[in-house]
Each structure stands twice: as C-alpha cells, then as structure tokens.
Design goal:
Layout: H1 2-25, H2 29-66, E1 75-82, E2 87-94, H3 104-110, E3 115-119, E4 123-130, E5 137-143, E6 146-152, E7 158-167, H4 173-181, E8 183-186, H5 188-198
Parallel strand pairs: 1-4
Antiparallel strand pairs: 1-2, 3-4, 5-6, 5-8, 6-7
Length: 199
C-alpha cells in the first residue's frame, strides 16, 4: 500500500509541476493580443513614415531634375534679328541680380517678347525678331588724310560720327583705295575690329 501511495503522490507532484510550468511558460492570451496589436501599430507607423519619406524624396528629385535655375555667374546673350537689313545684333552681359535663381518659365515671364533659345544654370540666350534696321551700319572713309566714320541711316543718308586720329598715309595701298570709296561695316564689333587693324 505504501507503493500505491508513493505512486499517487509522485503522479500528483508530476501533474502539479507540469501545471505550474505550463502556467509560468504559457503566454497569456491578453498579453499576446496586446503585443500583437503593438507590433502591428509599430509596423503601420513605420510604413506611414517610410511612405511619406519616399514621397518627399521623389518630389525633391523631380523638383531638382525638372527645375534648373540660373546661377549668380550665369551669362545673358540677347539676340535681335532685324527684318529690313537681315542682320542679328548680340548683346552680352552678366545676369542681373533680380534674375538669379529663376527657372526657365520665370525668365520667360520676365522677357515675354523674346524666345528662349538656350537655357542652363550658366547661360541664357534670348532671341526676337524686330521690324526695321539694326542701326549698326557704318561707312569708313578717308577724309582730309584721316579715317572718318559715318553712320548709315535707314533712309540711306550718312551721318558723320567722328574723325579718328588714324592717318591714312601709312595704310597699305589697297586699304587707301578702298577708303576713297568707303568701306561698309555692319556692327560695332566689326567697326572696332577694322579700326584696330588700321592702327
């Protein structure tokens, strides 16, 4: 009988130990449910933050790639084609301060009469067509032994601009002969180049 009692006690002890172990190590349903909710909420927060970050990054990339802007060291070239004389004048300058950090569309708003031929952060080229003559037609002639400059007006008349101090006496024979008839020059740059050649 002692064996039976010992066996029953042993079984009770084993069952108690198993129940105790199960109670200790088995997860609580409430705690498990709460933990799962917390994990899902954290995943949603991470997903929301990640999605928002990705959207911001994409917007920044699109903005950066599509909206090139002018820089402070940008150059500006303005080209004007004159229909009557069929010449193009070019004006070169540094970009004015009020045009720095503008997009192509913003530059177009500032110059509505011009077409943007070229646009980058370092160079802008504007172009337009205009009626009339460019007003930069000159005639260079010999007068009293010096080189004289005349401006050719739209009606074809000549307007004397200046007598230079360049003597025709030392010019080559062909240049002196051409100067008697007059040398036609278009544009101030070409005029200045011709005068430099004579000096």
């Amino acid at each position: 009988m002692n064996r039976v009692i010992i066996t029953i006690i042993a079984i009770i002890v084993i069952i108690s130990a198993m129940l105790t172990a199960f109670a200790i190590f088995a997860p609580n349903k409430k705690e498990t449910a709460q933990q799962e909710k917390t994990e899902i909420a954290e995943e949603e927060i991470l997903d929301d933050c990640t999605d928002e970050y990705e959207m911001m990054t994409q917007k920044t990339e699109v903005t950066n790639s599509e909206e090139e802007k002018t820089s402070p060291n940008c150059s500006l070239e303005i080209k004007t084609y004159f229909k009557d004389c069929q010449h193009i004048t070019r004006q070169y300058s540094n970009l004015p301060e009020d045009l720095v950090n503008l997009t192509k569309e913003e530059i177009q708003k500032k110059y509505p009469d011009y077409m943007i031929q070229s646009f980058s952060s370092n160079e802008i080229v504007l172009y337009k067509q205009s009626e009339g003559s460019c007003g930069e037609h000159y005639l260079v002639k010999s007068e009293n032994g010096v080189v004289s400059i005349y401006k050719v007006l739209e009606n074809g008349n000549l307007e004397k601009i200046e007598n230079t101090e360049i003597s025709t006496e030392y010019l080559p024979e062909t240049d002196r002969m051409n100067m008697e008839k007059g040398i036609e020059v278009n544009g101030k740059q070409s005029l200045n180049q011709l005068l430099e050649d004579f000096e």
